[in-house]
Structures are given as C-alpha cells and as structure tokens.
Amino acid sequence: MPTLAASQLLLVGESFPFQKLSHVSRTAWLHRSIRFLSKVERDHGPLTLTNLGFKSEFEATDKNNTQKPKQMSSPVEFPNRKRNAVGSKGIKAVGTKKLLGIESAPFSAKSFSELGLPPPLIERLATEGFAVPTDVQSTAIPTILKNHDVVIQSYTGSGKTLAYLVPILSEVGPLGKKPSDDSSKSVKKMEIEAVIVAPSRELGMQIVREFEKILGPINKKVVQQLVGGANRSRQEEALKKNKPAIIVGTPGRIAEISAAGKLHTHGCRFLVLDEVDELLSFNFREDMHRILEHVGRRSGADPHAPKSLLAQRAERQTIMVSATVPFSVIRAARSWGRDPFLVQAKKVIPLESVLPSGPVNLTEPTSSSSSNSNLQAQATVESLPPSLKHYYCVTKLQHKVDTLRRCVHALDAKSVIAFMNHTKQLKDAVFKLEARGMNAAELHGDLGKLGRSTILKKFKNGEVRVLVTNELSARGLDVAECDLVVNLDLPTDSIHYAHRAGRTGRLGRKGTVVTMCEEPEVFVVKKLQKQLGIPIPACEFKESQLVVTEESKNPVVR
Ligand SMILES: Nc1ncnc2c1ncn2[C@@H]1O[C@H](COP(=O)(O)OP(=O)(O)OP(=O)(O)O)[C@@H](O)[C@H]1O
Predict the structure, then answer these.
(1) What confidence tens digit (pLDDT) does each residue in 259-291 have?
(2) Are the C-beta atoms of residues 244 and 192 closer than 8 Å to each other?
(3) Neighbours of 6 (CB within 10 A)
(4) From atom 23 of ligand 1, which residue's Cα is the shortest distance away?
(5) Ligand 1 centroid distance, CA of 161 (Å)
(6) Is 479 in the pocket of ligand 1 (CB under 6 A)?
(7) How far is residue 489's CA from residue 486's CA, in Å, rounded to a whole number?
(8) What are the DEAD-box RNA helicase Q domain coordinates in residue numbering (predicted)?
C-alpha cells in the first residue's frame, strides 16, 4: 500500500480542526474529502482507519451509549451523513487465512455482546454456537441498529445472513428490546414487521431455518416462510393463525398473497432483499415492484402522493444484500433509500459517495466508446472468499464427466457441486457418474419442492457425493461441507462465476474451484481471471493427482 503524503493525511487525519469550521465550510470540506477519498481508494486500494489516522470506535462499543454519536468517530455514527468514507482499522488480510481471521481482525467486535444487542438475543446466539461476529457482521449490525438503509456487500460465505438477521431480531419478536407482551401491543402483532425476500425457495427456506435456530424452539412461529411451490392456502391459514412478525419468501409468492389482501405489510419496519442484484433483475420485475410499493407503506400515507411510489422515501428500513453489487443496485438503493450506506467487511461508506469506478468496482466500460448503456456488471476479488483455490482444465466435451470423476478422486473431495448450464444435461451426467460408482444426484427447478428438499438433505448429510445442478443452486446455498465446485460448463460471466465458486470455502474453510472447458474456450477463463483479479492456473489430473500445467501469469490482486 503506497504511503500518503503528509498533507493528504492532514486532510483526513484526527488533527484536522473540523469542529472549528462553519457549516458551509464543513460541507465543502466533506465533499472535497469524499472526492479525495474515492480517488485514493481507486489509486491505492481500500481505505483503512490506520492509513487515515483514525481509531475505530467499534473496538469498544459502549452498550449504553449506542444512541449518542460522537464527533468524528465510527463511520456509522455520523450525525452529518454527508461525511466522508472511513474504513476500518487494520489492513485487509493478504493471502489465505483460516477462519476469516475473526479473532485477529482488529475491526471485528470480539463478541456479539459488544454490539449493543439485547441480552436474550446474545444468549440465544451463544447457545447456537455464535460467539464471535464475522467482520461484515460487526460492521453491519451497528449500522442497521442506527436505522440506516444499507447495501451489504461481502464475499460469499462471510455471514451476511446473520448480519441482517441479528439486528432485526434485536428489534422484532420476543428476543428484541421491546417484546410486545401487553394487550395493547397484541393488536400490532397482526402486522408483519419484517419481510425478507430471496430469489429461490431453497434460499428462502435456508433463511427461515437460520431465523428459527436463533429464535429457539418455543418461538419458531414468529417467522413464517412464503415460498413458491408450497400450498398457498395453507400458507395463508398459517399467517392468520400464527400472526408471524417476520416472513421470508420468494418474490412471486409474497406478491401473490399480498395482492390477494392476505398479507398486511404496510406497517412493516424492515425489508430485506437478499441477493439483491438477482432480485432486481428482469425476471422478478413485476413482483418486486409490488413488494417495494407495499411493504412498509403506512396506510395513512398521502393517497395523492406522487405517481411513482418508488420515488417516495419509504418509512421502512431497506437492507440489500449480495456478494456482487453492480452499480445499478447502488443507483436503485440511492433512489429509494434513507441516507443509505454501503457496508463491507471493514468499511461503511455513504452510497452517495460510491462511484461506478469506486469501491464496488463492478461496472466498467469495456471499451473507450462505452456509454452507460453498455456498462458491464462484473464481480471483483471482493466477492470471493480468500481461502479458495481456482484452476481450469482443458478437456473435450465428451470427456467432461470422466474428468470430473478424476478430479473428485485427485482432490479426495467429499462433497462436490458440479454446475451445468442446461437442465437437460444434468440427468445424463448423473447417470454416467453413478455408472462409475459415484453417488450423484441432480437438482434443478423442474423438480417439485419436496424432491428438491429431499435431494438437498441427502447432499448435506453426505448420502450424495456429487450434486449436479444448474444456476438454481449458485446463490446463497450454504453447505459447509462442500469442498469442491466444478464448472462443467462455463458460467456466463464473472458474477455467475463468483456465486458458483462461493458454494465452497464457506466461512474461511478450504475450497477448490475447477472450471472445465474446451480449448477454444480458454480465452473466457483468462477473461474471468482478469476481471476477478485471481490466478486461475491450468491443471490436469494424472495418477490421482492435480498437476498444475501452466502457472497463472496474472498477479494476485488481494
Ligand atoms: N458469527 C458466526 N460464527 C459462526 N458461524 C457463522 C457466523 N456467522 C455466520 N456463520 C455461518 O457461516 C455460514 C455462512 O453464512 P451465510 O450463509 O450467511 O453467508 P453469506 O455471506 O450470506 O453467503 P452467500 O453470499 O453465499 O449467500 C453459515 O453456515 C452460518 O451459519
């Protein structure tokens, strides 16, 4: 990391006489700083509290003082939200690190109890084995607790689910700060207080299980799933009977039940869009439009208000989450967010200071003639767990499944996800693997809900060694044991590569990603390597060994 000039440090350092400036000068100073910081970030890598001369307030969060922001302290405590971006103390870990460096990362809180959470919630977290928050959790939880809208971006498997689940449970339900136990509040209980939207049933069900785990067996009914493929009238009955405070579902089913007038979300306080870049894609456009218009819009709101409700500032808190955040998401979040922040593992940045070429450098013109219309969404190294190893292997189409089998043996992989692009091919691949004595199963959207969950269960408990699947399983799926991801077909772009790859190496575990391609496709791998800023060396499988045949010439960016 290049050192900054002393004059530059003075501009952002502790000794700058910020308090003495008039409001106008402060604003001008802040705008200059934001521009300056964005440039430094671009030119010299991520900003940290150390290189800016700040000390992190997160080191010792005062539980009783969470409402009273201190001047120039933690970036999430700014009373003037136009202040500059401030990063964390400490520089991002270089190279492979076990267990995310949870214990050694100076910005991370040492325990959930440092984050101003209610004691019953901390107890439940401890009971379920969650003692130390990950980096992104220690950054996101205090930010959300301060009522900011946020976009949470952090690599796959870094714990983004708990990063929003914990602050929600801190406010909603029996573990929260204000459990609604008296009769006047029981009327309010009719209302849904948090809506979590996920793009697939599997992910929706996984999030529900995470909520149930923390809520504990006696409070399970506080959360309800509304995913497609399940019986809708049963879901509606359960809503009526259990009056859940939190619902988790897929866009189609939530929109459907909402349109039927059976879901009361106008008073909702939290709206979470998990895998937000996928949810804002064309496929979900209509359902997401309905959700964004209805959730958290109080019925008392001005009926003559603007044509586009989306343009109106919502009363709800909107939390958007993904490992890959294209600039289109930043733009959308700005338009409907309330002073939104971008939250990364060790940084909190006002969204207004994020530029297309800024910290989430995922959209770049592909040529000098590029205009806004052909900005291309890309994933960066920040989307990928640092512990992953990436390789590619050239093989003929007809030999791919056999190469997969040799790859599994060479790496002695116990739990493998193999991605293909077309549903029709999955069955054939499974047949070939099984014929060679390897337990395999296919998972795709054409299977019923029950079939899908049975196969997933078998994969998780080790009955199935190789899960052959398509894009359905690329996002969010959390199988801790998965130690190998194989791309039998090339992913369509770096975003798809990042999400597929992220099914292994969860929470600091080791993981390997092997991409198989034919000779004429090698240039695509080279392009992915460049876009992602990771080395992807060529390999072969010889005598039950993975042999690297050509080292990657690309520098490691991390
Ligand atoms: N603080 C923690 N301590 C221990 N385990 C944790 C902690 N936070 C999360 N986990 C576990 O880490 C795993 C990965 O978390 P999660 O699925 O939320 O990752 P993610 O960042 O959302 O990944 P993706 O981008 O792929 O959706 C889960 O099994 C989760 O239970």
Answers:
(1) 999 999 988 999 999 999 999 999 999 999 999
(2) yes
(3) 9
(4) 157
(5) 6
(6) no
(7) 9
(8) 110-138
